Amino acid sequence: MPEGNGAPVVIKRVKKSGHGGHHGGAWKVAYADFVTAMMAFFLLLWLIQSASEEQKQAIAYYFTTGTVMDSSTAGGATILPGALSATGEEAAAAPYVGFNGSQANPYLSKEKQQYLANREQEMFDRAKIALEEALASDPTLTELRDNLVITKTDEGLHVQLIDQENQSIFASGSSELTPNGMRLTVLLAKVLAQMPQNIAIEGHTDAVPFKGAKGYSNWELSAARALAFRRRMVGLGVNDERIVRVAGQAAMQPYIPEDPTAPQNRRISMTFLSSFQKNAVDEAKKRALEVQREIEARSRQVSES
User: Fold this and answer.
1) pLDDT for residue 55
2) CA distances from 152 to 21, 91, 116 (A)
3) Which residues, at least 6 apart from 140, have a Cβ–Cβ distance to it below 8 Å?
4) Taking a C-beta distance cutoff of 8 angstroms, is the pair 175, 219 a contact?
5) Distance of CA 29 to the CA centre of its chain
6) Are 61 and 115 in contact (CB under 8 A)?
7) Among 286, 285, 276, which residue's Cα sits nearest to residue 112?
8) Are 167 and 139 in contact (CB under 8 A)?
């Protein structure tokens, strides 16, 4: 009771109801976390739905094995999207080379080696398509489409620059590139510079006897052309360390065996050497053929329905 005032001072204290906890508290935080997780989940579903089949396979492999297998080529724009290194690591890394010449690392699992073999075959297909489309889309190169022959072999992707009548790659009896050869090598270098595989280069001549000073023959001429081609590729940006074999074959491996003197036998051949043993490559080709047949079967079903 304060002095000098007879009126009592009343202090009111509001007692909070125990039910107020239902209108705020930890449950709201838990609910917010749940909603955020659901948003992230549906966002993930949307991203996976919009991903390509190749990306889906890579994601599935990661969650199955816990390892990342894809390694895109560093640098600027590329006409070979999704290019892989031969071992699934950085393209600049030195590849493993076994006693049998295979670069397939024996410490990788069989599944990973098979996966990489499949990816390598896909890369070869992309390189072939990129070269053919670039050749067809450039009016200055269209007339040279018969001078470029691309095939897949057991050794790898085989690319050949072949002479035609009145359209030579090298000057007659010389290792100097013609204007046609210069234009085609520019196109080739754009692809070669992006491929991680090792490269073998061989020079070939026809069977017409050639004799120069001091016994210079088709053997020396084919080797000189192969070396000149190597220098040209390196000058256009191809990694010199990737070129592991340069040889001259003279007329020993004619492109047209029934006519050894045909101009098409004069050529430069390059091979992107496969990084995997033949059985892995065969299995990859078999799987690619099965996928192609499945796509064709689905297309027929759609057209018939």
Assistant:
1) 64
2) 72, 22, 17
3) 183
4) no
5) 47
6) yes
7) 276
8) no
Find the angle CA(35)-CA(41)-CA(43) to the nearest 5 degrees: 105
d(CA 170, CA 50): 48
Model-wide pTM > 0.85: no
Which of 185, 126, 132, 124 is closest to 155 using CA atoms? 124
The Cα–Cα gap between 300 and 305 comes to 9
Q: Which stretches of the chain drop beneath a pLDDT of 50? A: 1, 65-102
What is the distance between the alpha carbons of residues 157 and 128, in angstroms, rounded to a whole number? Answer: 8
Whole-number pLDDT of residue 205: 94
152 membership: H or E segment, kind and range: strand 148-152
Residue 131, token pair as written in the block: 């070269």
What's the pLDDT score for residue 104?
A: 52
Residue type, 105: N
Q: What is the DSSP letter of 8?
A: P
The residues near 165 (Cβ < 8 Å, ≥ 6 apart) are: 263
Distance between CA atoms of residues 292 and 289, nearest Å: 5
Given this model, what pLDDT does residue 15 score? 59
